[in-house]
Recover the amino acids of this structure.
């Protein structure tokens, strides 16, 4: 399971140095994750059960700059699964030259809105994610 989301760099993404500001990459990555969840219907049943994904860690490595007008591709996939958590691997590529702009690992926990705490992943969802990880290796 791999989602590819395109984002065009706009003027409001640019900082004083005329490249994408580091904080904007968080937004690009989030857009990629929402597109992933939409494409693979990976959240609707959680909501129905009173559960949600809560981000608990983001680790970003910046590799090259992106500038006004560049078309970026955010690639998102599951990378690792725990009892209560998943980690997604994301990369941002510049489609102009296929250079790696940034890469990130984003860890979520399955969060109960009622209990206000992390809870184990539902078995069916855990199985689906395990299959997705195995098929991408």
């Amino acid at each position: 399971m791999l989602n590819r989301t395109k984002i065009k760099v706009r003027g409001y993404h640019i900082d004083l140095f005329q490249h994408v500001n580091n904080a904007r990459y968080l937004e690009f990555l989030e857009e990629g994750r929402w597109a992933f969840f939409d494409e693979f219907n990976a959240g609707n049943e959680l909501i129905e059960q009173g559960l949600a994904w809560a981000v608990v860690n983001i680790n970003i490595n910046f590799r090259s700059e992106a500038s006004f007008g560049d078309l970026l591709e955010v690639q998102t996939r599951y990378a690792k699964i725990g009892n209560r958590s998943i980690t997604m691997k994301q990369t941002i590529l510049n489609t102009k030259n296929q250079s790696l702009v940034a890469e990130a690992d984003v860890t979520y926990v399955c969060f109960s809105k009622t209990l206000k705490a992390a809870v184990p992943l539902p078995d069916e969802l855990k199985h689906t994610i395990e299959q997705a990880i195995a098929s991408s290796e």
